Amino acid sequence: MKTYNLDTIQKVPLREVWPHEAHDFTKWLAEEQNLATLGTAVGIELELIETESSVGSFNVDIYAQESGTGRKVIIENQLEDTNHDHLGKVITYAAGKGAEVVIWVVARARDEHRQAIEWLNQHTDSDFGFFLVEVELWKIGDSLPAPRFGVVEQPNEWTKTVKLSEGLSETEKVKLAYWTAYRDVAGGHPEFLKEFSPQKPSKDHWSTLRLGVSAYHLALLIDTQKGRTGIELYVDDDKEIGHRAIANSGVFEEHLGLTAAPFDAKKASGLRFYKAGHPIKGHQDAWPGYIEEQLGWALEMKKIIAEIGL
Q: Under 8 Å CB-to-CB from 77, ≥6 apart: which residues?
């Protein structure tokens, strides 16, 4: 009989790795790579602002923001079962910081606190989101422990989108619907998700894709008036990088099969590409195809940017 060389997965007590919540776990979580791992779990690209950030006479464990939107995020850590004291803290900290996203990281979420976070998500508008996340440590045999973040409560995006659509113009509703479809399509593309974190749906004509640097980013585009989709490389302020991108517009055109439209404004520069014949309004059945193409453009542009060394 054939034998298989397999081992068992073992759960590791959190305090074996992080004895002190503030001195050990918060310090570890605030590191860029670990904050990115948490961000991937909740679907938000996180940037650290500061740890132990003052809120009156209290301190929130981690104060961060969402890349691209600047939405303020508070992260409260609790290496034990959830309790009423910490539930009160996350609400107090959110109010004190004017945060729109709350992430409560815990060892175990009790049912009553799951229900409380669910209730908050149901009774706040689309600008706010509450996440309840369990952190675990696992190892195989004598391997090093590996962390795992499991989201147990999060905003209902469909409900939030419905709320957001109230009061919008018909064109804004179309844009919101398109970017909602984009999030759904992107969610089925592991290669794309490995490189990018899609933003939440909005009523704008663009959706930002961060590239891990502050000087420039990509943005997917839709033009509801002219019936076309596109992508752009947007460089903030740094004219040297912007002009280098423009000088290499032929490389982008060759790989994308699209014609570049360089722009060089006072505060920004870069390259913009559009593909005509992609009507948006009244053509929802065609959106998945449009979006698939845009995902491919984004992956290709990231490769080109690395090749030319922007």
A: 21, 22, 25, 26, 29, 61, 62, 105, 106
**What's the rounded Cα separation, in Å, for the pair 179 and 207?**
8
User: Taking the alpha carbons of 248, 250, 253, 255 in that order, is the dihedral positive or negative?
Assistant: negative
Helix (H) or strand (E) holding 302: helix 287-308
CA angle 197, 235, 213 (to 5 degrees): 45
pLDDT tens string 118-141: 999 988 876 789 999 999 999 998
Could you say which DSSP state residue 195 is in? H
Using CB atoms within 10 Å of the CB of residue 200, give its burial: 0 to 12 exposed, 13 to 18 middle, 19+ buried.
buried
d(CA 55, CA 37): 26
Residues 6+ apart with CB under 8 A from 222: 175, 178, 205, 206, 228, 229, 230, 280
Average pLDDT value for residue range 265-269: 89
Question: Which amino acid is it at 236?
Answer: D
Residues 48-81 have pLDDT tens digits of 999 999 988 889 999 999 876 778 999 999 999 9
The pLDDT value recorded for residue 68 is 67
Contact between 137 and 11 (Cβ < 8 Å):
yes
Can you tell me the distance from the alpha carbon of 236 to that of 84, in angstroms, rounded to the nearest whole number? 44
